[in-house]
UniProtKB/TrEMBL annotation:
Tree of life domain: Eukaryota
Entries under Pfam families matching the protein: GHL10
Source organism phylogeny: Eukaryota, Metazoa, Spiralia, Gnathifera, Rotifera
Keyword annotations of the record: Signal
SUPFAM superfamilies in the cross-refs: (Trans)glycosidases
Glycosyl hydrolase-like domain boundaries: 26-333
Name this polypeptide is given: Glycosyl hydrolase-like 10 domain-containing protein
Amino acid sequence: MMSSLCESESSNVTCCFSLNQTEKQEFRAIWIATVFNIDWPSSSMISVTQQQTELLNILNMMERLNMNAVIFQVRPAGDALYASTLEPWSIYLTGDHGVPPSPLWDPLAFIVDEAHKRNIEVHAWINPYRARLSSATYELASNHMAKRFATYAYSYANQIWMDPGSSEIQDFIGEVVEDIINRYAVDGIHMDDYFYPYSDGTEFPDHATYARFQEQGGTLNLNDWRRSNVNSLVYSLNRRIHTIRPKVKFGISPFGIWKNGFPPSITGLSSYDSLFCDSRLWLQEGLVDYLTPQLYWQIDPPAQSYSALLKWWIQQTSRGRHVYPGNAVYRLTGTTNWSVTEIVRQIHLTRSMSDRLALGNIFFSAKQIMQNIQGIQGQLAILYQEKAITPIMSWL
């Protein structure tokens, strides 16, 4: 708990307070999304020097605000924003799928080096099964996973998606992760909510894989089998990561609602039923070191309440794994146009539950903070006026 709180967090968002010793361990992070150049680089057509300068500007801003971790998207769609030995260079970096940057450089090596100089952790963010996004029309490079494993590459919702039920695909993703943690001094591996795709109203075309499962004696129904496939990948990556580098953290940021009615006031898309992600199990079984449910809703509305969902999630962490909720700073702009007061209240609320393992926040995404929308940098400077280390994970 905070040793000194302002009397009304909603009416005076610039109040000062002191952090106690527990809160000096706090995860203060941002996502840097590279897909579609959301956060970085601003364009695949700018020079290498400009790309490096943009990354340094983000890290310098984080250092000024006493933030301590960055979730850096290095594999948006079976491609690489690093010198991969397994996959093609990303079009979002070079403008041409499979073509290396010129002059040659390695963004992951660069950000790890520069972030560590500033005492900022780097968590490499990968998307396991997405192979090409909607509206993307570029030709896939010959070493792309959808070409190498064409049997398991499906057109779905104007995207290309790999089959999570394929053991070959699961093994390949494991090889990608092993390659990263063997060659880069990353502090964590991170995945977000994309396992099975969000539905376009049609059935995902994995029936041949499911039929083979049944022919081999499998008895799970289709939905349970899909959830088992996702769990299998999570089990495997947890084991691989901690066998190779035991102190590397493994985190996932699932959709913020596990199931309708959990907790009772909550309604909305069910990650369990629609995305086949049993994300509660990952906490209960200790399969992740931290979970970041994407709580991209306001505190007060009951149907999707930030506070109700956060309380529910931390009640699920029976093995002591950390919960770092995801906060929607992107909603400070556009049609939703939240007030920055909402984000400040959410950080205060998270801190009020720090004794129950809600130990920090991750903000989506870097762009709104870099643009200082609604003066958010000033608010974070007040909230983070004292430095903090990332929370200690005694099991690592």
